[in-house]
Amino acid sequence: MTTILRLPSDPAGITLPALLLRNAEDHGDLPALSWRSGEGWSTLTWREARRKVAVLAAGYAALGVERGEHVLMMMGNRPEHWLSDLALTHLGAVPVTVYGTSAPEQIAHIVRHSGARLAIVEGAQELPRWEPLLTDATAPLERLVVVEAADAGEHRTYGSLHATGSRLFDRQAFEKAWRAIRPGDGLTVVYTSGTTGDPKGVRLTHRNVLVGGIALDAVVDFPAHVGHICYLPFAHIAERLLGIYLPVLRAAHVYLCADPAQVAATARELHPFQFFGVPRVWEKLAASVRAALAGLPEERRRAVEAANETARAHVACRERGEEPSAELEAAYRQAKEHVLDPLLASAGFDRLVWTASASAPMPLDVARFWAGFGLVIMDAWGLTETSGVVTANTPDAFRLGSVGRPLDGLEVRVADDGEILVRGETVCEGYLRPDGGVDSARDADGWFATGDIGRIDEDGFLWITDRKKEMIVTSTGKNVSPALVENALKEHPLIGQAFVHGDGRSYLVALLVLDPELAPAWAAARGIEGDLPGLVSHPAVREEIDRAVAAANARLNRTEQVKRHRLLAEEWGPGTGELTPSLKLRRRVVRNKYEQVIDALYTP
User: What pTM was estimated for this model as a whole?
Assistant: First the structure.
């Protein structure tokens, strides 16, 4: 258990501001927040961070921010974002982060739906999407605060707001405001990233989040005041939990990584004890390592492969709940010290005690790849509506491919149609309505229908099959999980992304995307030259992809097998719309974008 720190009250009665006060009093000199500054890092201690939060709260109060109102933010992972979030919370306001990749119409929807009068944005990239709403009679937005002063123009700057807060700060008013907050008050609204339709606003309370955080802490054993590399968007429930709420709960140290592309370089520098990544992040990291290994001399590569097999055997023993034999333990220690740790150290992963993933099913081949380095990715499962984690694998109880067992205080069951249901205090109150009310997310007995399909095995581990609304129903009436088929296809290292279609059809087809890192390395090792578009049309690459599809089909039943496929060179991402900001596949977008290609795959 990590949370050995003093709790201000009973877990169900805690608020986030009470924990921040605890940190300032008990751990005031410890680092709270660090961010890039020139060639190094700037850092605030917990005492300094609370003082900054108090000053900003006074500044936002002077702007007219009121208790209970929603305030929108669109910034990267920078100190102004983290501190403003906590400052607004201390006023009893409800901070809402909007994905930086959101289109103007998505921003307009959130502004109208939330009723927000104020938004805090970063700078020039954001302003063209927000300024039109200030003069839109249908939108309630009244003013913007801009962090980058050079881009602010006529808008209020973050710096001037901070200066106002310094001048007007009243300690008594600050303490009175946050002490009036109750555990059932809104802590944030998280808008789902919208794989289909408009985003929905999920209202989460202090109790929802902190009860869940304490339950998660009970199954994870971290070093005291552990550091966390914060690089996912704060609009995602995972980073709100890992980058704001859990660090305040644990008095942990947050390292802000403003550019997600620099997360690998940041890990190499910091050698973290914990690392979280959605499956696509782990896939890309694995592809980078595979590409590096492919360039090693044959003798060195064979040594690494042997060490990988030893590590996987060691992990398999732990997975079965068995003690490794003395011989296996000795071989693993030898492999780890002389082969694996030096490789992990080059990536900054040699000190990891907790590696985790969530948000989407983890491909089993990716989990097994990292097990070959002694790293067990503790796959967890939860939703925005459940305040994050519901089930989690733990170092002493895990099954690769599963998402673990329920945390204490949470009930999980599977309905007759396979849908997973959850009940407990972390389940949100409901979905925000435009009039400020909330539509309940639970049934009369308190169960929340998650929309995920899965099963619970005899040992209590939950296995996720797919999203209920994304299941393919073929023309013969057979149900197929597209994620299951796509993950089987992606087990071949050349295939970086996959999309399977077959709804209402007699057979499945697939769009496949070459891995942009591994494909060039694979080609170079075989004397093949060219960029990705060139590789797509190369006969040797096409033959290898055909073999990959055949190998995947051999592991699937007849209904799940892919009959035809098309190879693509262009990687999908949030910027081009095929992935959500949390890197989930937008199936409808892909289907519409490649409609003609898909139709051609069904043409004789």
Answer: 0.84
